[in-house]
Specification:
The chain has 134 residues and is α+β, with helices and mostly antiparallel strands. The chain is built from 3 helices and 6 strands.
Length: 134
């Protein structure tokens, strides 16, 4: 990712906390203190139907060397536990590529249900919703 895009994403992540009362966390592997990804909540006001800009969207991304170890599941579970303890009940949204079977399975494990399949930025995208405190 170009430095400009990386900086913009970092600023958006930091800004989520004071604006929304929630945000994202960096994921650091305990064994070697390597930054391996991030997880959390944000509002992106995406041009999608249904519109869900006021409600939290959940995202997670891990480096390929962290895949298949249960780390995404652990991080998502911890993030959802935090949300439920700190935010009034609300639906939580996610968008995932239909080719990303691992993330779709993870979302299903955490009670996300498919709402639609659409194009977002010209890419096939699955829109999912998790009921308030499923």
């Amino acid at each position: 990712m170009p430095a400009e895009d990386c900086w913009r994403r970092l600023m958006a992540s930091v800004g989520c906390w004071p604006l929304n009362g929630f945000g994202t966390w960096a994921l650091e592997r305990k064994s070697d203190a390597k930054l391996i990804g991030n997880v959390g909540f944000f509002t992106a006001w995406r041009a999608l139907e249904p519109e869900f800009g006021d409600e939290p969207e959940m995202g997670w991304i891990l480096s390929p060397d962290a895949h298949g170890q249960g780390l995404a599941s652990e991080a998502c579970g911890a993030a959802l536990n935090w949300l439920e303890a700190n935010i009034a009940p609300t639906p939580v949204w996610a968008i995932i590529s239909p080719q990303n079977h691992a993330s779709l399975n993870l979302a299903k494990r955490f009670a996300f249900e498919q709402v639609s399949e659409t194009l977002y930025n010209e890419d096939p995208t699955v829109v999912l919703r998790r009921p308030p405190w499923a």
